[in-house]
Design a protein that fits this description.
The protein has eight helices and ten strands. A hairpin with a 2-residue loop joins strand 4 and strand 5. Helix 3 packs antiparallel against helix 4. It starts with a strand and ends with a helix. The protein has a six-stranded mixed β-sheet, with helices on both faces. By secondary structure, the chain is an alpha/beta fold.
């Protein structure tokens, strides 16, 4: 299968002795949805930022769409939705989406309108972001990530604050994107969303501790749920660390 992302033995440390990524490796195949599951502080957001080219690895390598990162030239082909909103609150929804799409070289009004329509905000397109609820701002952030039609989309907790009906619509659209060859990397704490991913990576202490489809991970762990499977593999990892 064609690889969209290759992460090889990546380490990343921050001041204060925080070792956020510890030799982490993974591969994202073109046209799949890959889910990152793990607790806060596990390294998920750091990994996403490294793939987006916003952080340089201290060791190891990150390759995105065939190019070693960081590489500004590849950014126009990547969509990135941060965990915390990065919108301009004094601008309207349309102005925000148009501005960020323009940074990626997209000035197509139909593409901008389509992204806003997908997140069900067409009737609020000319409302200032400062007037929106938290859930609506989350929708605008998603529209920003999609408007320029990227080949790789990085979504850090994309459905936080989104109602169940709209969440289902998001995932339906995500699946439509993968049918077109788009690759999605999604971090989430919502277990039913894990079941919607093609493959999952369980992340703990800056490492992938288990990887596979939701069904295969449940089978390997002998559990009924993905959450129980994660706890099983986390316990195994902890026991191995104690043995050393």
């Amino acid at each position: 299968m064609t690889s969209a992302v290759e992460v090889r033995e990546v380490h990343k440390c921050f001041p204060g002795g925080v070792h956020a990524l510890r030799g982490l490796s993974l591969t994202l195949h073109q046209g799949e949805i890959y889910g990152l599951l793990g607790p806060n502080g596990a390294g998920k957001s750091t990994l996403i930022r490294a793939i987006a080219g916003l952080l340089a690895a201290d060791a190891g390598s990150v390759t995105v769409l065939g190019r070693p990162m960081p590489d500004k030239a590849i950014l126009a082909r990547v969509g990135y939705m941060t965990q915390a909103s990065a919108l301009y609150t004094d601008l309207t929804i349309w102005q925000n989406v148009a501005f960020f799409a323009g940074l990626m070289g997209c000035h197509d009004r139909a593409a901008i309108a389509g992204a806003i329509a997908f997140v069900d905000l067409s009737d609020r397109a000319h409302s200032r972001v400062s007037t929106l609820s938290g859930g609506m701002r989350q929708r605008v952030s998603l529209a920003v990530a999609l408007a320029h039609h990227p080949a790789l989309i990085l979504l850090d907790e994309p459905t936080v604050g989104v109602d169940p009906q709209l969440r289902a619509q998001f995932w339906e659209h995500f699946r439509q994107l993968t049918a077109q060859g788009v690759t999605l990397l999604v971090s989430s704490h919502v277990m039913d969303e894990a079941e919607r991913c093609d493959r999952l990576g369980f992340v703990r202490d800056g490492q992938i501790i288990a990887e596979g489809s939701a069904a295969s991970l449940r089978a390997q762990a002998g559990t009924a749920t993905v959450e129980e499977a994660f706890l099983h593999f986390a316990a195994q990892k902890g026991a191995a660390a104690n043995d050393r």
